From TrEMBL:
Keyword Hydrolase tagged: yes
Organism: Candidatus Caccousia stercoris
An individual GO BP term: polyamine catabolic process
Keywords in alphabetical order: Hydrolase
Hydrolase keyword on record: yes
Gene Ontology CC annotations of this record: cytosol
Name of this protein: Gamma-glutamyl-gamma-aminobutyrate hydrolase family protein
Lineage of origin: Bacteria, Bacillati, Bacillota, Clostridia, Eubacteriales
GO molecular function, one term: gamma-glutamyl-gamma-aminobutyrate hydrolase activity
Superkingdom of the source species: Bacteria
PANTHER family according to UniProt: GLUTAMINE AMIDOTRANSFERASE PB2B2.05-RELATED (PTHR43235)
Amino acid sequence: MKKPVIGLTPSLDSDHYTMQTRLHYPKALEAAGGIPLLLPPLSPDTVREASLICDGLLFTGGVDVHPSYYGEEMLAACGEVCPQRDEMELSLLRLALERDLPVLGICRGIQLINVGLGGTLWQDLPSQTGSTLCHSQRPPYEMTVHTVHVEESSALFSMLGVREYAVNSTHHQAVRGCAPSLQAAARSCDGIIEAVWRPQSRFLLGVQWHPEFRFEQDKGAAALFSALVRACGT
């Protein structure tokens, strides 16, 4: 059986001369039975052609999505942004929706998906919500720092099989207003949305935590990548 090709998006450094991604992402995809393909931010035509090679997409973590994409001015507490990456990933998301490609978003990825479908973000959790929950841990990132409550009606619950799930966490932004076509799949104890899914899609899931750091030791983390790869064959 042919292994599915999963396109994954890289980070760009500030001078845009290099692109990179943590090896945890492609290793997790490989372990799940997929073939990872790094997608550089090139011309729109090239991005479209590259997307046609892919059976699914993984939007990875990285810098903040520019607030202009969800109709807000940038606050002082907003972090580094990369409009070039935003444009490329939003284009890829539209292409994925056109073809109903399976999509998994991690950290920045869940935020990008939400914005691309019409939702909004908290630009900075500490200053805007006052939450004292540890959402931005220090290494090692394989360790868990808080739990999330998983909605039993969600696709995420069918993957994890538990209502309370321990996660790692390294973010200062999060989904604020859920996009109309998305549903919250998990929340932390302070009410922050930690996962979303799109019921009408073949597979579209976003999580705020980083399962790529834990796929070798946590069956739940591995299950997310396996579900993505499996959906590519349906």
